[in-house]
Amino acid sequence: MDDLKDHVAVVTGGGRGIGREVARELASRGARVAVVSRNPESCGSAVEAIHAEFPGQAAAYAVDVADHTAVQEVAKRILGDLGGTDILVNNAGITRDGLLMRMKEEDWDAVLDTNLKGAFNTVKAFMRPLMKSEHGRIINIASVIGLIGNAGQANYSASKAGLIGFTKAVARELAGRAVTCNAVAPGFITTDMTSELPESVREAVLAKIPLATFGEPRDIAAAVAYLAGPSARYITGQVLAVDGGMTM
Ligand code: NAP
């Protein structure tokens, strides 16, 4: 399928896990993809893997999405290199879990700065080219935890609930410029982020998933590609849960 041919996509957190699969999926549909991650090795290796299948369709950019000034600078480089932006996927995210009683201020700040302010930083940086595109799409990767909360994740829950509010406000602000803005809320997806959870926690989560299996990054990539593609042109301000039925 080449429904994203001639489109430029920016995927944050594209070095590993869900973002890496999203970047690959968008490239497979013809988009040229700026793969953004914190470490150059991470986005570099994702781009190498994309080039092996889809030569010349990706470029790597290392930046901390929480750093407002650095994001504006890297955005200028991306726009210079790729010539515009049609699709922005805000996927970079971290956890710093702990019960509120013991949660340190720096754990709160780190999670909010990356997961929520990071999206503000990139939307600010790419808003003009998205408005110029005839096909502007913003897709924010939230979480079911932003919908239902989770003990031990007050910072993460707040960041993802905030991202959902941000999604709806941006959808309303940019609708007049034909830019859509939606969120995907993954359930439990097998990546580095979830691999370190103790077996007991994994079993407890599994018991709450009606489809009785964990999701894979490709499940999220398929939802993002749908929202980025022409079939989703009339969908904005929505939250699409991809969670095996956890939050139905
Ligand atoms: P992951 O495997 O830990 O990968 C996270 C990616 O984000 C990495 O490429 C990392 O860069 C990048 N990143 C983190 N902080 C960054 C920063 N400050 N600046 C730039 N890049 C940064 O995570 P994942 O499981 O794929 O999760 C991706 C997104 O889905 C996150 O927003 C997460 O909250 C959300 N989500 C995940 C699950 C799940 O079950 N896995 C469920 C719901 C929602 P480096 O590679 O350079 O470190």
Number of distinct helices? 9
Please tally the β strands and state the result. 7
Order of helices and strands: EHEHEHEHEHHEHHHE
Strand order of the largest sheet: 3-2-1-4-5-6-7
- Most strands sheet: 7 strands, parallel
Please state roughly what percent of the residues sit in beta strands, choosing from under 5%, 5-15%, 15-25%, 25-35%, 35-45% or over 45%: 5-15%
Number of domains: 1
Report the uncertain regions.
none
CATH-defined fold name? Rossmann fold
- Which CATH first-tier class would you pick? Alpha Beta
Nearest-integer average pLDDT:
97
Structural class: alpha/beta
- CATH superfamily label: NAD(P)-binding Rossmann-like Domain
- Gross CATH architecture: 3-Layer(aba) Sandwich
Bound molecules: NADP nicotinamide-adenine-dinucleotide phosphate
Helicity, as a percent range: 40-55%
Distance between the termini: 31 Å
Characterise the protein shown here.
- It is a single chain.
- With 248 residues, the protein is of the alpha/beta class.
- Helix content is 48%, strand content 15%.
- It has a 7-stranded parallel beta sheet with strand order 3-2-1-4-5-6-7, sandwiched between helices.
- The radius of gyration is 17 Å and the shape is globular.
- Bound molecules: NADP nicotinamide-adenine-dinucleotide phosphate.
Give a quick summary of the entry.
The protein is 48% helix and 15% strand.
